[in-house]
Alpha/beta hydrolase
Amino acid sequence: MRKHKKAWLIGLLSIFGVLLMGLVGASLYFYQYAFVPSKKSFLSGGESRIVKDGKAWLKTVHKETWTEKAAGADLKLVADYVPAAKPTNKTVVVAHGYMNTKEFMAPQIKMFHDAGFNVLAPDDRGHGQSQGNY
């Protein structure tokens, strides 16, 4: 009877171990798939004409590149500052989405700049020119 219980226990622990390894493996796969910046097969649409035109404009407009050290880490964070054509205290901060860069926000930067705002466009940590991981 004792050997029979021991065999059952070993069998159950083996099944549990295999399931646990499968769960860990699947978790790592989906983490890599969703959160590690890289080309994604399901995002194959390319850039729109609006984004391409905005990026071309952003290359020609007068802007300053600002850098800052991240709090609590030795990482360089980078932002573009596009001053308004006429001096103003009105400033807009635009934020890009996950796995994008400040250049992707060029149409919005242009829109606010044309409306008379100063615009600050940072690259989030781990994106674009900013250092770090996310």
User: Anything to note?
Assistant: The first helix runs from residue 2 to 35.
